[in-house]
User: Fold Diphosphomevalonate decarboxylase from Ramalina farinacea.
Amino acid sequence: MAENKIYRASTTAPVNIAVIKYWGKRDPHLNLPTNSSLSVTLSQSDLRTHTTASCSPTYPPAEGDTLLLNSHPQSLSTPRSLACLTSLRSLRRSLESANPSLPPLSSYPLHIISTNNFPTAAGLASSAAGFAALVRAIADLYTLPQSPEELSLIARQGSGSACRSLLGGYVAWDAGHKGDGSDSRARLVAPRSHWPEMRAMILVASAMKKDVSSTSGMQATVATSSLFRTRAEVVVPREMAAMEKAIEGRDFEGFGKIAMRESNSFHACCLDTEPPIRYLNDVSWAAMQLVQGVNEKVGRVVAAYTFDAGPNCVVYFLEGDRREVVGCLAGCLKEGLVERVEGGVELEDGLEGAKEVLRRGVSNVIMTGVGEGPVSVEDHLIDEKGEEVQKNGV
Amino acid sequence: MAENKIYRASTTAPVNIAVIKYWGKRDPHLNLPTNSSLSVTLSQSDLRTHTTASCSPTYPPAEGDTLLLNSHPQSLSTPRSLACLTSLRSLRRSLESANPSLPPLSSYPLHIISTNNFPTAAGLASSAAGFAALVRAIADLYTLPQSPEELSLIARQGSGSACRSLLGGYVAWDAGHKGDGSDSRARLVAPRSHWPEMRAMILVASAMKKDVSSTSGMQATVATSSLFRTRAEVVVPREMAAMEKAIEGRDFEGFGKIAMRESNSFHACCLDTEPPIRYLNDVSWAAMQLVQGVNEKVGRVVAAYTFDAGPNCVVYFLEGDRREVVGCLAGCLKEGLVERVEGGVELEDGLEGAKEVLRRGVSNVIMTGVGEGPVSVEDHLIDEKGEEVQKNGV
Assistant:
């Protein structure tokens, strides 16, 4: 056994953008949600967290576990991170007890390095990808036999929506009923291959850190909104069932209508919070109007907007409707943000104001689509000596 | 009996701004609401409709009833106007039947002239004041003995919220339960004299005609919002009771909190409509933030925002808190819009952005307060020959 060995495992993990929103915890300690949610996992070619987990007997015990996120040291002693690390170590310890020839990795300090290729905390689900990558990388380092669904129970404790980023394609997070949260986990609704034509165009209206964090915002909603209970208990269960059916039948019209009214319902409950929470700004509303305008002009739902806890608009559409959707929306954006597509529909004159707001307000566009779950990679961010790998030009 | 006589009666009628909102009809034909509402009648020194109703055997029958609103001819043959005129004529006819010496005014064409001293259909409750003035003026012309509450049944059929403008002070509109609407009428919660210190500062963010009319908007909400039923059946009844108690006890803290969350609840249901309805723009949100900022800084609720179906912010406050409220908000507005008051609180630095949005977005400010109901006036807009009175400089 090499006593100086640096043990390493690396993974990339995807962002997911919910079409049935997670908002509200029934148990803030265990990150148990008031309602189920459902998301599309996005391609890691475009948005990903890349994480290397390493451990070694040579790492100084006094420093404890460490995490560098985009080159900045982050605490791993928050309750959420501790919950993940403790669970993963405990699973590793079981393996070690059953097989004493295994190196005692659970007793070594962990050094973790993580990089996002997109701005942190800008409503782009960075914490989801981050915790999914963290859990997946450590599980790989520890050679844990647990399935992604089982690991999702652990990632959930780091960041609720992270549990959905452990799977690719179309993923539900079932709220569950048990007090210990053991049934509150990710479930595959359909793999990417079932409906690979799903595309997402992300209109970045602001890459600034948001005013109201999801964690504090959602608990304010639970505590003060009079409409929220109806949403959690009546509206979302109905929409979840309908959305699963739409995905099963590859019915974009159904998918899109539900996604849009779900986004509206979530933001309505934010507005019904005391004091009210606002994520949708003038740019967001302009995007909503233009998506509606495209659908009206085409005569069916070819594009669907959804907004997480931020002003950025995610527009879902099918590859077959690229010409209509991107052709039209690209014409409402600053030159050069997205490759022009010929043949988009002409929007009604009444939308000139919305076009102008979008043109001025959208600073960046990310074109992506449905993708796979976390992937093991050999591209380590920590070298064989336990040092951060210096990459040029990144 | 003077056969050429022009019979005239003139009234002014007030605007009212609801603190428990009317949104949704259970019977669109009779204008019966899904929920009760409650408003403050505003002073006619600042906002009013001035209406002269006249009738005469000399008016050409072929022309029928006519209405000039702000010098523009308006139809009186809409179902809503017809409902009012038919009811009022029928009440007059009963008087004439009982007393044949009365001139048969009910058989003469009506000529009505009406002027608002504020922009029409800009979310400033112009239709409320308009129909209240129309009904009150014709009732006076016909010397009807009905009480304002009884007349409110008629005004309601013209424009729902008009029923509340027939009374001064603090006025409820009870939704009622009967199918014929005979219990859906205005009720005095408290006269102006009970709590005369109530002030309203109206921040006019736009005097443009609104995109989505209240009438079509509210029925879209009833038809498509999943959260609306909870609002109408659970939230509003609770808030109505609490608001009446707050007014009874002259409890501004209670009044303000309920008013703000009621406004939020209403606009949340607009956002939950399919497609979503938006009345709150960036300027509205800036006003909300600044009102919250004042309250936080002062340490109690001294100002309360509310928004009707438009972006204009109505800020209620008590005369005793003028220094804090106006002193502070005036500093966030363009020079000259409102008289400066010394000694407003200093807002937190974080609100600089909101101040700038308000400074750029508010074009006009109306300072007013709680006021009386319609008032009979001798200032007629129609002269003794039945012609429009030409006023210079108006």
